[in-house]
Amino acid sequence: MPLLQAIDVRKTYHKGATQVPVLRGVDFSVDAGELVAITGQSGSGKSTLLHLLATLDRPDSGEVRYEGARIDNLRTAARDRLRNRQIGMIFQAYHLLPELSALENVLTPVMLRYGLAGYWRRRAAFRQRASELLERVGLGPRAAHKPRELSGGEMQRTAIARALMAEPKLLLADEPTGNLDQTTGQGVLKILRELNQETGLTVILVTHDGEVSAAADRTVSLVDGRVADGRLRAA
Ligand code: ADP
Ligand code: MG
Q1: What is the mean pLDDT of each run of 10 residues along the chain (235 residues)?
Q2: Neighbour count for residue 46 (Cβ, 10 Å)
Q3: What is the whole-number distance in angstroms between the Cα of residue 202 and the centre of ligand 1?
Q4: Residue ranges per structural domain of the chain
Q5: Which residues does residue 18 pair with via DSSP β-bridges, in sequence order?
Q6: CA separation, residue 223 to residues 22, 78, 154 (Å)
Q7: Domain spanning 4-232 has what CATH number?
Q8: Could you tell me if the CB of 13 is within 6 A of ligand 1?
Q9: Which ligand is nearest to the CA of 48?
């Protein structure tokens, strides 16, 4: 059974009287342990698709399945639980909380999940795990720094550590290297690849950058709101 499936997923945005069809029947599946790139030109619907996969938005029609069960029609509480426990996300713009240190940013998912009292009871173990994750992404010495004291690559690595705090099976990344220079971006990709290989973390990476997608096991291309046939493209 695939870890994640999109089945005939459709999404149209409405701007006043104008309709903007973005996804016109997207089908693909990702197996556990894969590192898959979703590519397409700017405006092709990559972020829209990733938001649907993450249950941040709902498709107009079609289904998204996680471990075989539909997740596109979950109620809010169940969606929040899924996102907090199974799916980690990172974004082009990092989305760290500016007033928190790197370590505190990494801790936010468990604060949300367990509440302040629950967090406080297990505080030592959580801080230990968050420190280990920061070490893992090469930021041990930066744990006490605020985001404004970190470089772009360091902020993205902090965001990766935060996404891993809840031990998700799936990591969704939207243009994770989009704001980084090439060398720094490659460092971020290398970390994602190592996590994928060492822990079996499934990674879905959205990018318009061919070099980034070349780092993936497999590429899913969005063209005209559908998945282009990889066999035709390769020919
Ligand atoms: P990509 O991530 O591939 O660049 P997006 O998924 O962000 O593409 O956007 C696809 C298309 O949908 C674009 O034409 C964009 O302008 C439009 N779009 C995205 N979000 C909205 C929205 N919330 N409302 C209206 N149109 C949107
Ligand atoms: Mg986008």
Answers
A1: 97 93 96 96 96 96 97 94 93 96 97 93 97 96 97 97 95 96 94 96 94 91 89 45
A2: 24
A3: 25
A4: 4-232
A5: 15
A6: 10, 32, 33
A7: 3.40.50.300
A8: yes
A9: 1
